[in-house]
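Tutorial, part two.
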Amino acid sequence: MHRTISSRLSSTRQLWRFISVAASASLLIHLSLVFRPALGQIGFWPATALLAGLLLRMPRSQDLSAWIMAATGAALAYGHWYGSWNAALLHTAVDLSGVCVAWYLLGRVWHLDTLRTPQAIARVLAAGLAASLCTSLAGLIAQLWLDIRLQTAIEVFFRQWLGYSAILPVCLQASLTRRLAADKRGRSWSHLRHHLKPGSHHWPLMSLMAAVSLAALLGGPGAVAFPIPALLFCAYAYQQHTTTWLALASAIVLMLCHTHGWALTDPASATLWTQVSLQMGMQLMVATPLLVSSSLAARNDLILALNQALDHDELTEALSRQAFMRGAIEYLQQSPASFYGNGVMMLDIDHFKRLNDNHGHAAGDSVLREFARAIRSAIRPEDLFGRLGGEEFSIMLPNTTQQDCLEIADRLRACVEQIRLYYDSDEPLRVTVSIGAIHDSQMPGATLSTLLALADQAMYRAKHQGRNQVYSPDAEEMRDLSPIPLI
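Running the prediction step on this input gives:
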């Protein structure tokens, strides 16, 4: 019964997915036909690039039914526009031939899974080039253009290629770009800062707006190059997805300016090769910032990977001692200070030496990995979890009350107690932890080393009282503790 219901739900979802493909294809073709006059002769044809991006991100786009629905939607739009089903079917076949080439190259030959390298951007441009060439040749073979066939084919080729170059990166960006922002629990010390000073991120955008405005005012063939330095500035300052949108917007604005006679050349007197030259200029204006942005993204990814390796313990993936100390000091010294204060814990796995002696170091490594996984899954993204050495770990809980700190510590202890590892026998290895918890309100103005030393002494009292427990000293006991700062 459950299988039948699940199968029906799956079939319904698949049906709606294919219907949405048909509706999207029809809408894209119709809007492209409507806005084609506004973009002029040096404009681009957005429908094929958008449809290729849609199919590339569709998990079941290899199914014939998805392509049938896309063709149906496109044919309906063309049929409504031209009033002839023969013309509709020919235009649909010509458009989908290019879409199929782009989909095959990016989704099956190159398996594009990121845009954060120059090679990936070059492949997008190459796939657009091949798709545009296929569309132009298919149009010639189908005899869509009864007069001036070669000239029309050349115009179609450049319009299609510019559309793929400007639009396809935007379509692919949201789902292809790897989420490489550092984990929030290490955001202050393990990810790259913006190159610009705070408050100056609007300057690249303002410079781009000024460059595009200057191109519209001065005009002339060289105006197409005016936005390029500003787009490079944006590629340097902003994330890659922002750069792709800005490049697309700049191209659209210049196309509209040219169509209405505000920039570049007079559309009425433009020859074929003048249009080709302008479209190649547009192509370079779009491609250059994308290539630069991808180069910067690749460099940043490499630096992030190196920082990840330096700031994290390889075995447990916890923060290294240096990274933990650096981040915890940032929390303690932040201004203004956190409202609820900060909690500090020291954690030590109980009887870890005995476990190593009885079961070997490989079992000890497995325990450390599973222990760290359990802790990471139970703390907040902003909390810091670091390995100070051996089986000793520490946690910093920013903006946490003393009571919440104790409750979190006991929850962590319970999580660790549930660990069961089967290593060399049928009896599972059981893991427990002793935790010492300190809140910075108990010793105002104390340094991190002092707080860690107090938490370390509290942790040893937890061990002396029987292990597998949390110990936090009260006000009277705090006076008895003599913290020796940890180095």
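The longest helix spans residues 272-311. In part three we will examine how such features are distributed along the chain.
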